[in-house]
Predict the structure.
Amino acid sequence: MLRLKSSDPGFAKAFARLVKDRRESDENVARDVQTIIEDVRLRGDEALAEYTAKFDGHAPADDDWRIPPEACREAFDALKPDLRAALELAAQRIRDYHRAQLPENRDYTDESGMRLGARWSAVDGAGLYVPGGRAAYPSSLLMNAIPAKVAGVARLVVVTPTPKGEANPLVLAAAHLAGADEVWRVGGAQAVAALAYGTARIKPVDVITGPGNAWVAEAKRQLFGVVGIDMVAGPSEILVIADAKNDPQWIAADLLSQAEHDPVAQSILITDDAAFADQVADMVGVEIAMLPTAKVAKASWDDYGVIIVVDSLDEAPALANALAAEHVEIATDDPQSLFDKIRHAGSVFLGRMTPEAVGDYVAGPNHVLPTGRRARFSSGLSVLDFMKRTSFIEATDAALAAVGPAAIALAEAEGLAAHARSIEVRLGL
Amino acid sequence: MLRLKSSDPGFAKAFARLVKDRRESDENVARDVQTIIEDVRLRGDEALAEYTAKFDGHAPADDDWRIPPEACREAFDALKPDLRAALELAAQRIRDYHRAQLPENRDYTDESGMRLGARWSAVDGAGLYVPGGRAAYPSSLLMNAIPAKVAGVARLVVVTPTPKGEANPLVLAAAHLAGADEVWRVGGAQAVAALAYGTARIKPVDVITGPGNAWVAEAKRQLFGVVGIDMVAGPSEILVIADAKNDPQWIAADLLSQAEHDPVAQSILITDDAAFADQVADMVGVEIAMLPTAKVAKASWDDYGVIIVVDSLDEAPALANALAAEHVEIATDDPQSLFDKIRHAGSVFLGRMTPEAVGDYVAGPNHVLPTGRRARFSSGLSVLDFMKRTSFIEATDAALAAVGPAAIALAEAEGLAAHARSIEVRLGL
């Protein structure tokens, strides 16, 4: 854990180093991923079968690549009642929040008589990557699938690796609840390539979202443009801004709720009280010992945890803007006044009773958020990631007569004679 | 020019080939671009100077890299009055259209007592690439810069190569009119790298937009994630859906207005009348001969032009959706009925009096549009490309008591004990 004090002479330099370190893997998988993508593009299902045998240790029979809807429904029906109710509450609240994001079409006629507008529509097909192993989270499936369905996507395709053939029943249950249309037993860069280019078995989609390891992320990056993708994602992070009136145990728990995600996750505390900072640091030690996820949480906190003691919390917004963190908690009596000054953050959790974990599951806003300072320019997942906008223009004779000559002047200045001509012939010029 | 008939037995195959061919360069510049980016990242302005000397044939003096605002204002003042008025009309109409795109913030409290919402804000800095040479279009500068300024971007940075030191006065004039804050004499992948990582001279930006050659496009693609970028762009294209009641000369002019952009631009006509198709093809020949841009337009039309004769224009929407073209003109008496069935298109031009060129300059909607079938999943440039959304959550004691237990159940099911713990400690569980 790194401890900084904003009044120390070396602070600016140390903080700049912190801002710069994105903790992202240098693992160079670009060439391997390129090979896999090309292979799947050219050989389709045959290549999928080979990579699945190699990486997931099993090769589904020809009729076993797709997990049937009944298996998903059965997994859902088999859930313990409290877990089923929790998933249903989460789904309902996510659906409600995202429904209000649906954009409005525009269609109006301006004073020149020209009709102008924009019409939104959903993509035809969306692909959702769901990791196997450590990060196989049903909540993540809901957070990706529900916005797609709310957007109006007709075909929602889930791909997920099933190592040794084993599917995660919670993921299947969530797929049923979210209304996934297809679920395929395939993962890795090969699954992303199959979604982008299609194979004989799996039809291509238009947008691919969802978390994954370095190979999956690189495959999405390479296929950006062939399909739409959500933002490049790095390790998770939280910034907690807290005064000394908080219970140190609560703040320690919040810091650890990020740390347990990943050894390279990052938890940062900004506080204006050095004694409180000590108490939180102590409580982190106490709490870690109790966690089944202690090993990961301890690695993250030891290597990437940060406590910054400031003279006044008025310093916090500038630091928060530089960090542009995925999650920002503001645990003070008047969180809004600090929030008003924070421009760059994925999602903000206001007040002492809003631990970040409530946003991971049941609050409603999306938990897929920009990491690694990308909140400077990008947003959490929304229905807009599954939609696109078509603008339109309809000119009357009078409207074209009014604005056409200006277009002709500009086209000529740009040396585009045929552009000018297409207006001139209509105006009889 | 390729001529197809939808009732021919080989049509489906030929049309599928057409849809598949994105006419995009296979030029493999990835490795060279990677080298340039790394070089600029490590050596900054020194690397910029070397690449500029090499590619643009001049090396600005240390105090001459930035084109001063006065030079832009002088270029604007020196415009001929009709051209200045045309630029001003275009800027005003683009501004009006994009202002109405500004998204609304959300802030509400749901029945559980939880406050939820989303707040939009502009990125701090946007970089706009403006090509030198053939594609140095002032209209393009307006179409990129005005949405950024409408979004509220405080720092708008233009980069443009000035081969042999010569800047395009129209581009400088447009930069003045659009309110660009900085204009730098630098182009190519090196300019994009400088915008993304910053140098001693040029501070970094958060989003980079604007057209460019294969090197610029590849640099943007490689830096996606370090900064935000607009969509990957390929050669321009138009699909004209026209019945026999049109003047063949008008339709020929429209097809050529795309063809003159680029030898690999593509113009496609769908009509339900073979004789009309012949007339348009003849008029294309007549019109080309008159164009100063004849060489480019002829290459495009000969190599990539397509005429598809259908039995009925009712077939057109399905073909248009498969092509997902950047521009679609519908020149019929009732264009709306076809438009209602078109789901995938960048921008649609309705009726006989709406040539695409009016949208390039003065209609108001953005002319930066998805190419190469990307209208299936992406949209034209808008203020949203220069903004991002921060979601927020504020729970009360009662709200956390109401939804917290469900979050705990899900966290435990996912094996994330610290997530559960951060809620349990607050609820005294």
